[in-house]
Design a protein that fits this description.
Layout: H1 4-15, H2 19-35, H3 39-55, H4 60-65, H5 70-78, E1 80-82, H6 95-109, H7 111-116, E2 124-128, H8 135-146, E3 150-154, H9 155-161, H10 166-179, E4 183-187, H11 190-193, H12 202-218, E5 224-229, E6 245-248, H13 254-267, H14 276-282, H15 288-305, H16 312-323
Helix pairs in contact: 1-2, 2-3, 5-10, 6-8, 10-12, 13-14, 13-15, 15-16
Bound molecules: adenosine-5'-triphosphate and magnesium ion.
Length: 326
């Protein structure tokens, strides 16, 4: 028989939708049985685990576990479910950001240990920075590293769609955090964190923000909450202390630009010897998303016109065009 602690952990992780812990515990049980000489049982357990992992596909497990009732239906209207498979190492980021993101992952992996010592793991994060610099991609990578789903909530959409009802919708989302361990990304956070709203929305938006703050304050789930904005200057500064970590994304500088070109060009099998130094220099002030798009455009040009036609001059033209389309 597996140890009582393992059975408890198995049930707890299943209830919380924590796949990583569920499979790790199941593997421990299999290892324990093998050690006791129950080789056939251990093998069977391992096979069951492998099959379960393979069949998990893209989050069938979570959908299956969601209660099929009115609340769930309502929830699915509010949340966009994403099952990302991007890893942190696929991203090009300044070293300080990589350090912060890795620290979050490490703390999440040691949730139980941290909680046993009456400490709180990092889980309330604020991502700020210009468009196309990796805020959403980082949320995806965190979810993927932790092997949990990502839910995206667009706050501006929620407010405009559910004027008068947005507070109850927000509560519904926070309740879900207990039921489904996931990364919850509140995009366009400035639409509630702003100091600059006016007109008759003011009262409602203030109440939504207060609800949000109250909920993150008392949230003791194992989910992660990320607020993202590209307008940090619109945020009320008093908000910053409510988050465990504030990660400031910036446009890439020369080293990151070069690294991104190298990785994207090689992913796209563009092996021609372009002068990356010159190309990177020309790409200052572009975002990661812009650079990624330029590489994809180039890959298409190569397919359509052939590699010989896609010279460095064409490359540089594509960059200039993206910088100044008009
Ligand atoms: N740091 C990065 N490393 C590699 N690729 C990146 C990075 N940041 C962005 N990209 C590329 O740009 C795309 C868009 O990035 P992302 O959606 O993360 O931007 P964002 O910061 O969330 O922007 P917005 O403020 O508009 O929501 C990504 O899907 C990816 O292809
Ligand atoms: Mg985004």
């Amino acid at each position: 028989m597996a140890a009582a602690e393992q059975i408890k952990s198995l049930i707890k992780s299943f209830g919380e939708g924590d796949d990583t812990r569920f499979y790790a515990t199941a593997m421990q049980i299999a290892a324990l049985e093998a050690k006791k000489g129950h080789v056939a049982l251990a093998d069977e357990l391992k096979k069951l685990i492998d099959n379960a992992k393979a069949g998990k596909g893209r989050g069938i497990g979570l959908v299956r576990n969601m209660p099929v009732n009115a609340a769930q239906k309502e929830l699915s209207d509010l949340l966009e479910l994403v099952h990302p498979d991007i890893k942190l190492k696929q991203m090009v980021l300044a070293p300080t950001i990589v350090k912060s993101l890795k620290r979050i992952v490490h703390e999440q992996h040691k949730l139980d240990l941290i909680r046993e010592h009456n400490l709180q793991p990092r889980k309330k994060l604020l991502f700020t920075g210009p468009p196309g610099c990796g805020k959403t991609m980082s949320a995806k990578a965190l979810a993927s590293e932790l092997r949990i789903p990502l839910f995206i909530i667009r706050l501006d959409g929620l407010i405009s769609r559910y004027m008068g009802e947005s507070i109850s919708k927000l509560r519904l989302i926070f309740d879900a955090m207990h039921q489904f361990r996931a990364v919850y990304l509140f995009d366009e956070f400035d639409s509630i964190g702003t100091t600059r709203s006016n007109g008759n929305e003011v009262g409602e938006i203030k109440r939504i923000l207060n609800t949000f703050l109250l909920q993150i304050e008392k949230d003791d789930s194992n989910s992660l909450v990320i607020a993202a904005t590209n307008l940090p200057e619109h945020l009320d500064h008093a908000l910053f202390r409510r988050f465990d970590d504030i990660i400031v994304y910036k446009l890439p500088e020369l080293p990151e630009i070069k690294e991104l070109y190298k990785s994207r060009l090689s992913e796209l099998n563009l092996s021609k010897n372009y002068n990356i130094d010159k190309i990177a220099q020309e790409s200052i002030n572009l975002s990661y998303a812009d650079i990624s798009r330029i590489c994809e455009e180039l890959a298409k040009d190569v397919l359509v016109y052939g590699e010989d036609e896609v010279s460095e001059a064409v490359f540089l033209d594509n960059i200039r065009l993206r910088k100044k389309p008009f």
